[in-house]
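hey all, quick one before standup. I had two proteins in the batch that finished overnight and I want to keep them in one place so we stop losing track of which output belongs to which input. First protein below, input sequence then structure tokens straight from the run.
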Amino acid sequence: WIYTFHMPLFFFISGLFLEKLVKKPIWHVVVSRLKTIVYPYFLWSILQELLRTAAGVRHQPLSQLWEIVYTPLMQFWFLYVLLLVSMACVLLRKLKLPVESISLLSGLFLASIVINLNLGGWSVLYMARVYSLYFVAGAICAKYGYLEAMAQRRSTTILRGAIAAFTLLTLAVLLKITPIPILNVVLAFTGIAATLMLSMFLDKAHRFSFLQTWGQRSLEIYLAHSIFSATAAAAAYKLLGSDYLTVEVLLSLLAGMAGPLLLYQACQRWQLMFLFRL
């Protein structure tokens, strides 16, 4: 259910800030990408693989770790593809190409899946083909103020929209229609819209301020969550066996959220913020 839209949602949110990047000098954009994407990508890829090696769950020799230069590992593909897509869009906008035209290009890029267009052996291009459309969609949404317009509606209307969209998404998963390529895009945008509307409703309710902290610390949670959640899951499985799967999943979820937040606080206290960004 969550995999139908959560990665498209991350790209969409990132795309909301495209025009802010375009307004800055290109050297400033490159430096900011190096500090906030490239640096944590390499640091946490290496850190995670060292820990996996120590735990005996990495089956490749560490001598091959340099391959992260062109082949991202596990969940860190997101940072790699985000860097590629965002810089490509910034450069196209710097060349005065309208965001609408970039949207058309990204749509055609995605549609090339239908004709099974071979992009070569670099897996990153295939992931960029799938997710660039959502990044550009976020940029278009920001340009025309669609989120601001949606936020002006009444709270009850926004909540009903979120419930309806999540219901459609749930039915699609239950009916097992998610493998259909074209519907995948529709369902992804449905999940994006549902999440945005739910976020607006919660913001208007003024009762869920802790969610703002989660959003502000999203980079730290993303970088460290796998280490904490995997450790908690392994420990819970060893202690409880296979009969308490629900409990193990919940413990893994809590560890994946709480662990990075506690680590962030510790890094703040001990002046170790270089673990997350330069």
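OK second protein, same deal, sequence then tokens:
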Amino acid sequence: MSDDPFAALPDAKRHIAHSAIAAVIGSAAVAAVRPLNGGKSGAFVFLVECGGRRFVLRIEGDPSPLRNPHQYVSMRLAADGGIAPPVRYMDADNRVAMMDFIEDRPLQAYPGGGEGLARAIGIMLRELQALPAFPRFVDFPAIVSRLWTHVCRTGLFADGLLDTASQRLCEIQRAYVLQPQDYVASHNDVLPRNVLFDGARLWLIDWESSYRNDPLVDLGTALDNFAPSPQLEEVLLLAWLGRAPDDFLRSRLALVRALTRLYYAGVLFSAAAPAPRDEPHQNLSAPTHPEFERAIREGRLLTETPEASLVLGKMFLASFLSASKPPGLPPMYMR
């Protein structure tokens, strides 16, 4: 086994990594470097330690055709606004950034329990959306539609099985009115794995999906992941808005939450689609959240597998179709 922490990097990216480290800590300093879990983005991520200071070095892998070109501008604005960890080095052309490492604690340890966390998430979103506007990229309904069209073409499911969901998506798109004049700085992936608690405050990380968007996209995702009861939803909403939302906002929020649920169903189905199968799947039956977690605990379903992604995708799709609370991503998917 190689002792080189950058052994998995192509030669050109190794040079980029060494240049970033030298720019932050100096070329003569000796740093300890080890790989970190890169999350779901496919990026190469490393912990860099030197002189009692710790940093995260993140280098993008091969760019996707759907890559968001504005992520570095957005991350810089978020860091300058105190929402993202401080950025010490950034080279958008070479797709590399180096930022302070945050020693995180379990979100369950946040003061005030679930209510305290829901309130803090609402305040964090309000502060994020008050930042200078990020660049525009693509309207969220278009991204959801593009992703869902891809899922329908994968052959993952039998012909006609997804027709009801596709029809529901069309209905939502007709009812959803774009309001680009109201778009704000948005993270667009406010999941528990992207929120760090350092013992005093929250930080948002992983900005590759960030661009200017409908403010209700981040709000809807946050409500589904950090407010598991109607009471906590109201706490988060009040902290975000500063007052109780009116009926018009609630109706728009219901449409956006449906879109975010179908988006995550599409992401999960896309992850499951490349796995070998004898024939397309013939049903969309989904377990309850307790049933899913029990299957994981008992080893009948293994995390980070196409099968688990398929089952979880069905759970999100069921939520999209029924307007019921989605499962959220279970703890094993949060980091």
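Flagging for whoever picks this up: Strands lie at 32-36, 44-50, 53-59, 87-91, 96-100, 184-186, 195-197, 202-204, 211-213. The radius of gyration is 21 Å.
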